[in-house]
Design a protein that fits this description.
With about 45 residues, the protein is mainly beta. It contains no helices and 2 strands.
C-alpha cells in the first residue's frame, strides 16, 4: 500500500458569466464536474 501527501491544483481555471434572466429549470452539472466546450450546463424557463 502506498501513501502520498501533497497539493492538487487545476490545470486551468476559467470564469463563467451569464447574460440571461429567467427561472433556472434544469441544472446538468455540479461544482467540480469536468465540462467541455459546447456542453449543455443548464436550461432556463423560456
Amino acid at each position: 500500500m502506498y501513501f502520498a501527501t501533497g497539493k492538487l491544483d487545476a490545470l486551468s481555471k476559467v470564469g463563467v458569466g451569464d447574460q440571461v434572466s429567467g427561472q433556472l429549470q434544469t441544472l446538468y452539472v455540479k461544482e467540480g464536474d469536468m465540462v467541455k466546450k459546447r456542453d449543455l450546463l443548464a436550461v432556463i424557463d423560456p
